């Protein structure tokens, strides 16, 4: 194929003058920003056009079409089923399974087409209607191509059944005959209708013999004079041998029967049996596979592939798959007759008849506006083991390439991205990296959404993404002064530095206001408390408060002392801790033992002596009073405890 | 691809840079009017300017967002020889009520003695770091050791590049196998043969950045430079905007500890070179997966480049202005619905495919005609052409290519034929529904005379098969 280099598709950015200005741009996760600018020069300063606009350019348009959501959602289920069904079955049942999958995909396309059609009919807006009907025609083209691929590649029908399948295919997709039939049958005397013979011809062309015979019998009863002629034609049509789906007859048997029948038709034609009725004569010619006679009915067949199937039916009923290419090419040439050139759809179908799978996929990706079709079809063909058997070393890569493109498109949608995750999961080479890059860009607008994204990352052990999401959420909460939320997110992120920072904020809040916020969170830290020293202290300090509140003074006192002696408490906080010890020291009963009291005294002295800016203690009246009071309380406690301990020992 | 929205930026002078935040929910613009504006996307998809403030005393060249792990932080650089770091402050109920946010300057980096031409945050795994480069040929790397206190930035490294610097790019790879790396481009246009792209790598032993490589083949002024996301590869990909677009791969060779003092040596290959802009290229930038490169040049176009699975690079889309004046009052409108079908063929660019021959004949103006046609049918006034003057439907549009192709579409009649019977509501195919021709039909209607990556693959495939 010789293809000239042509310009790729163009998107117009309104307003920007390409001769005088350039465009600056920025990539986003789903969109591109574009804006007019002038590179290489400083601003004019005298006020360039103030109307300059920033344009948001989107990539995947079909993703945003509401009615296609069903297609994306339901095909996702089928896709997942197909991935799971991996090679459980072998041979025949595996093939049946794959054909079933293919049929499911097609029924989703059809369902979507019906919805779209309903929408087109019900809408009043002509532009919208146009849009819908465009979608309908695209979907029906997809279904047509998929159906042919199913027959030729997935099912790989053999000689005999192949023709039956192709007939079904034509009957399913060339449908304007049905309306014609209805019109003819609903008229008062069908045989007098001007379209009567057209309908009979169409039935014959599509191999619908019973229906054709039924119509002819009506004509016969109205025309007793030519009764005999009708009878002969009816007999011929009845006797026509057809391939059967079951294996009861062999191909040679069929060929023999067919030869016999063919000769019989030939005889009647030469006899001039039908000479008096040109319609019936032409039908007989069609039965004989006369190409000119069939071509005369071009208008009724409408497409070259209908012509192909009709031609095969009456001249080569036992056509083998690999012979198709020859008949298809000549049928197309005959049918188009040099009047019109083949269109992309024709080229795609031709490529299918030629068993050029890659050509089919390639052409489809050119003409279809989304990746849905090629991605799913390629995946199915890959599961049929067809891409490898063609000895193309990039076979599986092409599947992945197309799936990656499709899933990336899904990620640009605010809710469909969740489907994209599963597609990435089934791309062995780059799926994970793509998922990592895409998922961290999902806007974390609410906590629920963040949790949803987080769950997906956790299931796949994406530690870095998990950490990053938690960190972002922690930062966001902190900026909004929601300390509790910030703390729980940073614990989830296992971010020690950040947990320390937030613990400090908690403690600062406490020393300013005298109470804790987010109590239930701090009370239930559990082992996560060990994430950072400061967090441990926060948890323990809160525990002290609880013990104190529950009047378990000895335990509270022991904990308080440990916090200082084990250096869990930051030095800046010791004064607060010692002040907290005051009420314990002043209780009626003695709580601190002598040894503990000595420890407390040492802590106090460490604090006052070890503090470099001693000045502060001396100058600040309140601080000095505090220290004085502490010393007094410690001394009194020591006195009491010595007496008490002495007494106990003495008794 | 299609233009989904337009947003009147309302800067009083030329806009120099637009920047998306990490999640694509916010954007920043900067301009010669010395200000930066921040825009937020609402739930319904509209963009609102939530802050606009004077940032510098000269043209603001670039604006960039820090990773959201560090909060809402922006950096800007300017002709006034400084770079600045800005942080959004939450609170102040007054602002919130007005839907405005408040940005405060955290620091001004004043070390440069000339215009600061580029500013970039380092990849997040390196912490909160910022690199600037200036016209005097120095790259400076700053670090904020305490992420909660952005007013303290220390100058960690000063790299003298000897040539006037125009752009920098950090290597985004977070792999342990790769040391921090920064590429610097120079727009020095004095006639010399010095390499205009230099790559500096951090050396763990000396704790300094040292020149690891210079791309000797690039001797023309370089305007922009961009490392691609790594995707777990062992090698790096670097795009360079100079008189053309070039894509290099840098493959690290084994470290020779003895000779080069721990510096990595690279095997450098040029994998693509495009001169389609026919002139200077000013910007290059990768999408988030590093699969599409966009470049902007003096021809007024943004071109998208994409490699297929055989590593063949192809242009897969062009964005181009149409030169028609935009009315100042034009506000963001929803182009999506009205332009839908008209643009269907255009979005093929996404598919990495090319439109049919007919499309290439279309000039911007005719395409806009087509768009407007649909906009009017939709009963909506086109958002970007309030004056009926050049685009009035009353004028004869039959001479337009688009009109012609749309009406004689053979495909549409064919479509009707392979529709199942149930789609005919009254027994005959509903021609009215299919009367609305679309550009996609037009695409299908015309044989593919174009070359694209798939076809290339196919040709190769054929050879293999033979």
TrEMBL record, chain A:
Organism in which the protein naturally occurs: Taeniopygia guttata (Zebra finch)
Purpose of the protein: Functions as a component of the nuclear pore complex (NPC).
Keyword Membrane among UniProt keywords: yes
GO molecular function, a single term: structural constituent of nuclear pore
Protein name as it appears in the record: Nuclear pore complex protein Nup85
Subunit and partners: Component of the nuclear pore complex (NPC).
Family: Belongs to the nucleoporin Nup85 family.
Entry's Gene Ontology cellular component terms: nuclear membrane; nuclear pore outer ring
Pfam families named among the record's database cross-references: Nucleopor_Nup85
Localization terms from the record: Nucleus, Nuclear pore complex
GO process annotations (BP): mRNA export from nucleus; positive regulation of DNA-templated transcription; protein import into nucleus
Keyword list, A-Z: Membrane, mRNA transport, Nuclear pore complex, Nucleus, Protein transport, Translocation, Transport
Primary localisation category: nucleus
InterPro entries given in the database record: Nucleoporin_Nup85
From TrEMBL, chain B:
PANTHER family attached to this UniProt entry: NUCLEAR PORE COMPLEX PROTEIN SEC13 / SEH1 FAMILY MEMBER (PTHR11024), NUCLEOPORIN SEH1 (PTHR11024:SF3)
PROSITE patterns membership: WD_REPEATS_2, WD_REPEATS_REGION
Family from the record: Belongs to the WD repeat SEC13 family.
Species name: Taeniopygia guttata (Zebra finch)
Cellular localization per UniProt: Chromosome, Centromere, Kinetochore; Lysosome membrane; Nucleus, Nuclear pore complex
KW Iron-sulfur (keyword) present: no
One GO process term, biological-process aspect: nuclear pore organization
Keyword NADP among record annotations: no
Each WD repeat, start to end: 8-40, 274-306
Top-level taxonomic group: Eukaryota
Keywords noted in UniProt: Cell cycle, Cell division, Centromere, Chromosome partition, Kinetochore, Lysosome, Mitosis, mRNA transport, Nuclear pore complex, Nucleus, Protein transport, Repeat, Translocation, Transport, WD repeat
Pfam families documented for this protein: WD40 (PF00400)
Protein name: SEH1 like nucleoporin
One Gene Ontology term, aspect cellular component: GATOR2 complex
Record function comment: Component of the Nup107-160 subcomplex of the nuclear pore complex (NPC). The Nup107-160 subcomplex is required for the assembly of a functional NPC. The Nup107-160 subcomplex is also required for normal kinetochore microtubule attachment, mitotic progression and chromosome segregation. This subunit plays a role in recruitment of the Nup107-160 subcomplex to the kinetochore.
GO molecular function: structural molecule activity
């Amino acid at each position: 194929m010789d293809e000239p280099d042509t310009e790729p598709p163009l998107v117009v950015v309104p307003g920007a003058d390409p001769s005088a200005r350039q465009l600056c741009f920025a990539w986003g996760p789903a969109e591109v920003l574009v804006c007019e600018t002038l590179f290489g020069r400083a601003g004019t300063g005298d006020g360039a056009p103030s109307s300059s606009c920033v344009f948001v350019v989107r990539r995947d348009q079909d993703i945003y079409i509401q009615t296609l959501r069903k297609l994306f959602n339901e095909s996702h289920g089928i896709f997942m089923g197909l991935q799971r069904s991996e090679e459980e079955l072998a041979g025949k049942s595996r093939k049946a399974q794959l054909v079933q999958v293919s049929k499911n995909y097609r029924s989703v396309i059809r369902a979507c087409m019906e919805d779209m059609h309903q929408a087109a009919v019900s809408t009043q807006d002509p532009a919208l209607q146009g849009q819908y009907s465009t979608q309908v025609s695209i979907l029906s083209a997809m279904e047509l191509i998929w159906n042919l691929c199913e027959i030729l590649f997935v099912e790989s029908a053999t000689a005999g059944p192949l023709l039956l399948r192709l007939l079904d295919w034509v009957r399913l997709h060339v449908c304007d005959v049905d309306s014609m039939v209805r019109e003819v049958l609903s008229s008062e005397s069908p045989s007098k209708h001007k379209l009567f013979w057209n309908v009979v011809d169409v039935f014959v062309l599509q191999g619908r013999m019973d229906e054709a015979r039924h119509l002819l019998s009506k004509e016969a009863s109205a025309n007793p004079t030519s009764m005999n002629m009708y009878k002969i034609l009816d007999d011929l049509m009845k006797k026509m041998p057809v391939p059967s789906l079951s294996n009861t007859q062999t191909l040679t048997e069929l060929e023999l029967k067919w030869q016999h029948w063919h000769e019989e038709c030939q005889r009647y034609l030469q006899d001039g049996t039908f000479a008096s009725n040109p319609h019936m004569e032409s039908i007989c010619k069609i039965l004989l596979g006369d190409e000119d006679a069939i071509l005369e009915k071009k208008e009724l067949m409408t497409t070259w592939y209908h012509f192909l199937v009709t031609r095969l039916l009456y001249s080569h009923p036992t056509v083998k798959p690999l012979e198709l290419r020859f008949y298809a090419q000549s049928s197309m040439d005959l049918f188009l007759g040099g009047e019109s050139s083949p269109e992309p759809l024709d080229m795609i179908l031709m490529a299918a008849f030629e068993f050029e799978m890659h050509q089919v996929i390639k052409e489809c990706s050119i003409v279809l506006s989304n990746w849905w079709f090629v991605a799913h079809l390629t995946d199915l063909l890959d599961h049929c083991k067809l891409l490898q058997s063609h000895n193309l070393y990039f076979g599986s890569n092409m599947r992945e390439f197309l799936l990656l493109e499709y899933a990336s498109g899904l990620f640009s949608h605010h809710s469909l991205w969740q489907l994209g995750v599963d597609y990435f999961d089934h791309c062995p080479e780059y799926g994970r990296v793509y998922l990592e890059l895409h998922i961290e860009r999902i806007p974390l607008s609410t906590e629920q959404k963040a949790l949803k994204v987080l769950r997906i990352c956790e299931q796949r052990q994406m530690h870095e993404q998990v950490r990053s999401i938690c960190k972002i959420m922690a930062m966001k909460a902190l900026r909004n002064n929601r300390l509790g939320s910030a703390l729980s997110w940073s614990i989830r992120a296992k971010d020690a530095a950040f947990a320390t920072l937030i613990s400090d904020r908690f403690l600062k809040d406490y020393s300013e206001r005298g109470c804790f916020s987010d109590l239930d969170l701090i009370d239930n830290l559990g082992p996560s408390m060990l994430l950072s020293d400061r967090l441990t202290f926060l948890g323990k300090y809160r525990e002290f408060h609880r013990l104190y509140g529950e009047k378990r003074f000895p335990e509270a006192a022991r904990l308080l002392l440990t916090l200082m002696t084990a250096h869990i408490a930051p030095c800046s906080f010791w004064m607060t801790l010692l002040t907290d010890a005051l009420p314990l020291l002043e209780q009626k009963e003695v709580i601190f033992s002598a040894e503990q009291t000595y420890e407390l005294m040492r802590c106090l002295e460490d604090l006052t002596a070890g503090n470099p800016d001693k000045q502060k203690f001396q100058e600040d009246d309140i601080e000095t009073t505090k220290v004085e009071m502490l010393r007094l309380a410690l001394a009194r406690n020591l006195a009491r405890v010595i007496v008490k301990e002495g007494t106990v020992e003495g008794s | 691809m299609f233009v989904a929205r337009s947003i009147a930026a309302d800067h009083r002078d030329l806009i120099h840079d637009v920047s998306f935040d990490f999640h694509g929910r916010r954007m920043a613009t900067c301009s010669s009017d010395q200000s930066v504006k921040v825009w937020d996307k609402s739930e319904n998809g509209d963009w609102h300017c939530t802050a606009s403030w004077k940032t510098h005393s000269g043209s603001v060249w670039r604006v960039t967002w820090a990773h959201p792990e560090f909060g809402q932080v922006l950096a800007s650089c300017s002709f006034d020889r400084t770079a600045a770091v800005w942080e959004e402050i939450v609170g102040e109920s007054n602002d919130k009520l007005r839907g405005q946010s408040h940005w405060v300057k955290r620091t001004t980096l004043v070390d440069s003695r000339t215009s600061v031409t580029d500013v970039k945050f380092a990849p997040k795994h390196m912490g909160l770091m910022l690199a600037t480069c200036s016209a005097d040929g120095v790259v400076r790397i700053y670090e904020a050791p305490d992420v909660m206190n952005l007013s303290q930035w220390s100058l960690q490294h000063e790299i003298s590049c000897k040539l006037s610097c125009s752009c920098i790019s950090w290597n985004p790879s977070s792999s342990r196998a790769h040391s921090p790396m920064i590429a610097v481009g120079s727009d020095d246009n004095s006639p010399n043969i010095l390499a205009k792209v230099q790559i500096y790598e951090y050396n763990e032993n000396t704790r300094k950045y040292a020149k690891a490589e210079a791309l000797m083949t690039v001797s023309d002024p370089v305007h922009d430079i961009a490392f691609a996301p790594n995707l777990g590869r062992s090698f790096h990909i670097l795009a360079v905007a100079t008189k053309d677009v070039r894509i290099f791969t840098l493959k690290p060779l084994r470290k020779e500890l003895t000779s080069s003092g721990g510096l990595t040596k690279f095997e450098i290959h040029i994998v693509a070179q495009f001169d389609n802009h026919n002139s200077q290229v000013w910007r290059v930038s990768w999408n988030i997966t590093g699969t599409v490169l966009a470049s902007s040049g003096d021809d007024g176009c943004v071109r998208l480049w994409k490699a297929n699975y055989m590593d063949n690079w192809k242009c897969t889309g062009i964005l181009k202005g149409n030169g028609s004046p935009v009315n100042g009052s034009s506000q963001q409108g929803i182009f999506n619905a009205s332009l839908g079908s008209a643009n269907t063929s255009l979005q093929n660019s996404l598919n990495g495919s090319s439109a049919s021959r007919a499309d290439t004949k279309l000039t911007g103006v005719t395409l806009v005609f087509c768009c407007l046609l649909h906009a009017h049918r939709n009963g909506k006034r086109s958002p970007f052409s309030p004056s009926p003057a050049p685009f009035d439907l009353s004028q004869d549009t039959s001479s337009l290519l688009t009109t012609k192709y749309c009406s004689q579409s053979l495909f549409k009649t064919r479509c009707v034929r392979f529709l199942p019977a149930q789609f005919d509501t009254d027994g005959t195919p509903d021609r009215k529904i299919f009367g609305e021709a679309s550009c996609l039909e037009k695409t299908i209607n015309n044989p593919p005379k174009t070359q694209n990556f798939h076809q290339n693959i196919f040709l190769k495939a054929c050879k293999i098969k033979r």
